[in-house]
Amino acid sequence: MLLASVLGLLMGLVMGLTGAGGGILGVPALVLGLGLSMTQAAPVSLLAVGAAAAVGAVDGLRHGLVRYRAALLIALLGALFSPVGVYLAHQLPEALLMGLFSALMVLVAWRMLQREKREAGPSDHGTASWGQKNCMLDQQTGRLAWTAKCSATLAALGAVTGAVSGLLGVGGGFLIVPAFKQLTDVQMRGIVATSLMVISLLSLIGVAGALHAGVRIEPVGWVFIGASIVGMLAGRRLCSVIPARALQVGFASLCVVVAAGMLFNALR
Fold first, then answer.
1. Prediction pTM value
2. Which residues pair with 144 in a beta bridge?
């Protein structure tokens, strides 16, 4: 129980310092630290990530940053495809799942190092000209223009995110944020807030799917979840005093090290 508390606290701290993407460390902490299998670790990690993301989503809703219609569409498609990921997770060999997760962590590390500096501003409008992106904001209303192309794009993003979330037990922020940035002209503050809402909804759906498939969360898992929430709250307070670039490099390095540990465990 003590080890679960320490690992949960550390994971939550990283989440608070780096954003919801830090939740990708949940599964390795549970597999390598507590000896759980990938299928056992997935719902525990998802619940911890979802609780942390929900805090950020509520804050985003309070400030009017969440594109809630887009978030609900992505989450709806994610809900339909998440059970597919959960089913595949129970069919694939444990070693293959660990290998896939290791590759995912390396990808997240690379994305973190490539991440551009977030621009703060009073407006939530992006700077693209009309037609440059799949989903564009109406400059008069400030809302997304719901064309067929935009709806199909967000639906496809939801399907992919839901499947990956169910398969590997991750919230999907590492997919949603860069995709939203590439495909829409929403400013970064709105992207992150919308992503957090999707992550919280998808995590809840993924947990429900795993529980329906017969996976049960043990007491040690609940301790991990509780500690991660405490760590996340602490991390949110500390993030303003640590340089952003130092956090990015540190998190990316940690991802690579943990990925190597997961891959070694899979090959063994």
1. 0.71
2. 137
